[in-house]
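Many introductory courses stop at the sequence. We go one step further.
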Amino acid sequence: MTTKEDLPAEAFAIVGSPEDSGTWKLPHHKRSILRAIWGKVDLEDTVDWERMSAAVTALSLDGHRRRVEASPEEILAAARHLAGHYRKAGRPLPDTLAALA
């Protein structure tokens, strides 16, 4: 299994190519995602909320940081993906995700 930062592709909001970990961006799961992939725990229990904040910020055009380098389609798909985790957890959507998702 290919990994980046000891995480599989499923732990990233943007995966350009599953075979090329250099295209994986916006990690937002803990290493326990491997247990979720194997059906041992619920996927939502593996969300890393500290990293989630950084992933959401990377999608933002707030001027404080550079936006993640990705196509508009990848950015929208990532926003929808991350927003899904917020919804499933019953958490309010950050403004960035509310605007994009």
